Amino acid sequence: MAMAELSAPKTTSTFLNSSSRLRLSSKLHLSNHFRHLLLPPLHTAPNSKISCSVSQNSQAPVAVQENGLVKTKKECYGVFCLTYDLKAEEQTKSWKKLINIAVSGAAGMISNHLLFKLASGAVFGPDQPIALKLLGSERSIQALEGVAMELEDSLFPLLREVDIGTDPYEIFQDVEWAILIGAKPRGPGMERADLLDINGQIFAEQGKALNKVASPDVKVLVVGNPCNTNALICLKNAPNIPAKNFHALTRLDENRAKCQLALKAGVFYDKVSNMTIWGNHSTTQVPDFLNAKINGVPVKEVITDHKWLEEGFTESVQKRGGLLIQKWGRSSAASTAVSIVDAIKSLVTPTPEGDWFSTGVYTDGNPYGIEEGLVFSMPCRSKGDGDYELVKDVEIDDYLRNRIAKSEAELLAEKRCVAHLTGEGIAYCDLGPVDTMLPGEV
Amino acid sequence: MAMAELSAPKTTSTFLNSSSRLRLSSKLHLSNHFRHLLLPPLHTAPNSKISCSVSQNSQAPVAVQENGLVKTKKECYGVFCLTYDLKAEEQTKSWKKLINIAVSGAAGMISNHLLFKLASGAVFGPDQPIALKLLGSERSIQALEGVAMELEDSLFPLLREVDIGTDPYEIFQDVEWAILIGAKPRGPGMERADLLDINGQIFAEQGKALNKVASPDVKVLVVGNPCNTNALICLKNAPNIPAKNFHALTRLDENRAKCQLALKAGVFYDKVSNMTIWGNHSTTQVPDFLNAKINGVPVKEVITDHKWLEEGFTESVQKRGGLLIQKWGRSSAASTAVSIVDAIKSLVTPTPEGDWFSTGVYTDGNPYGIEEGLVFSMPCRSKGDGDYELVKDVEIDDYLRNRIAKSEAELLAEKRCVAHLTGEGIAYCDLGPVDTMLPGEV
After folding, report:
1. What are the boundaries of each domain within chain B?
2. Can you give the residue ranges of the Lactate/malate dehydrogenase N-terminal domain (chains A, B) (predicted)?
3. Do the bridges between strand B357-362 and strand B293-294 make them parallel or antiparallel, or are there none, so unpaired?
4. pTM of the predicted model, to two decimals?
5. Which letter does DSSP use for residue B163 in this model?
6. Which residues of chain A are within 8 Å of residue B308 when distances are taken between CB atoms?
7. CATH number of B251-422: 3.40.50.620, 3.90.110.10, 3.40.50.150, 1.10.10.10?
8. ipTM for this prediction
9. Are A327 and B152 an interchain contact pair (Cβ–Cβ within 8 Å)?
């Protein structure tokens, strides 16, 4: 920071809406009308949001009155509660307008990597100030405070606001991006149908909340698994948001697939392009070696071991997560966060000429004959405006068509199993005997 | 990646020194001659380093022969074993020469944040290719493999090589930067003198290794605690490396101090400058509110609660780590990694006009009358060439002088306690009854 650029000291601080922001609120937003099948209603604790403000020389606990209840506000992430006129300062007046980014599962390990990347400017660029809206569970609220403290201590100039809370109707207010990571892991003995229902309810609720309070053009990236069907549930509960704005993360699969092809070919991974992951983020996913290229040449011309391509390659991609847990003792939070960054950057920067990226998107109007009304990973390109278009001229041979059909069938079965959450009637679960969850992933 | 820029596919891959790199080595480097005091000799397992290579269409386990022993190499981080001519390609020919960066404690949580920042280009810039040399313990070697796998899956274009191993004499070969994070945490009932000795032995060994195999101008940043005295031990064991090249990390303290002043003043943290941490990274550290500025004005003119400055401020900085553990359940790995990035960037980018940063450096020739032969945090500036100069005209009043003297006395006591590790005779430990370790830090 150049000293010459520093303005005179402010003698007083300005707070916008300080009275409305300095509070502990306790509101109830339930979406019970789909909660009638398979499981008893979940216990729904009153959601709460902590927001805060400081005034000069005042760090004492603040008593807050709301709904006739007095609570003591013990901690305040004051720095992020201040409001600023970025246009008034030399260093920040050329910055873009602040954007609001919501992250759910914000106290988890993936978020612990992602949030610091978002705050540093590594995702949206060095002239894009951001506000982080952190959604957690009741159980994680203390950990969320810890995350906010570490964000404070990191002094990121672009990070101007941090809110933490457990109510999506508050946290999603006016957000332009929502990265939905939080989901329950499958417990011992839990059937896949149960997992679909439990997590589906979370994403139904969050879809409703986004529909009601988010920016009308919010972009939503679902990471919590099963992410394709969670994304579908989310978009079906948010009819006012374009379905095209919802994504399911298959970028880690794409990145792993590129790396495995590079390893096999003995080239560096930056030589692999045009990598598509088709279908579901599950073991039915189809990493497409037919259309991928190495140094601009079709993979099958570079890697002559076609038996490996057809039989070993997909498995090498899918087993990566499980292998990593074996080695490292925990799941791949760091590389998942990197792939989330990649997925967002692919939407906010123009796709390089001739290349594409994979993302799970709504199938309506797709040129590949994939059943409409699903969230399916396909090759996409972007002009860098947050939107994308499907790549339309990708070759599909019989091998690929057959594999894609299996993933499509799986997603259709998942869809029938969550019909009660998408407003499409009574759920019917027949997911088959085979467990199609990726090893080592929750 | 623009397709037009892709070159024709290679039909064969080139490997430099593939025979020397494709191996599991097992060498013994001991530094026993200082291990004669206070503790029985540590059990020293044979150190090992795993390095690897791949050839086209060959992913099967590789049998490696060395020292008459045949081992089976089960995993290969092949992508990082390939060698490249960066000058031959359009996209990379303008890049700087590759630098080697060693990180110890590489399987730990701080490293798990730091490594991905280094690899992404966030520290050394978008045109600086890097090689990461990951040092771990025998116990962590599997976890290190997991880290290398996640780095592979992240497809960072700038990350060209990853080596993992447990022998500093191999991992530190030709490194231009060494970030020394690994240290043992204090176990229950362990005296501070024991901790100094145990960790001191690690840093003595690593100093010797750096002295022997690192780049002669290697920059060393010690993070593992007690970091000032560890840095002193390290530099005393590396007489061929300029003592000026060794740093102890006090940047997290500086960042926290800036945040606490901002909170108190009700301003955003980017308004706080000229923040010095004096002395030891311990509870005797001195966050300097006399010379720090808010919006270019001395802090004492902006914050009129001088009682808080003298009594509450330092504690608010020091208790941050412990408070965070309370909230978040683990130590502040993410913000520590951010502060390491800040510390490195302060040395490789020019310091803004009129400002400075804090880092623990060797005291020889300091203008503040601090005893020579210590590693002491002081205000510094850099031209961005990796080197620094002390800021010489900082005002020290009686309050500050008194506080600085206490931290100096503590460091002198620590130094006497590790005399057996610095080649200065027989250790004498009298660290006093007060525990001066920062709460919540290992």
Report:
1. 251-422
2. 100-247
3. unpaired
4. 0.85
5. E
6. 57
7. 3.90.110.10
8. 0.84
9. no
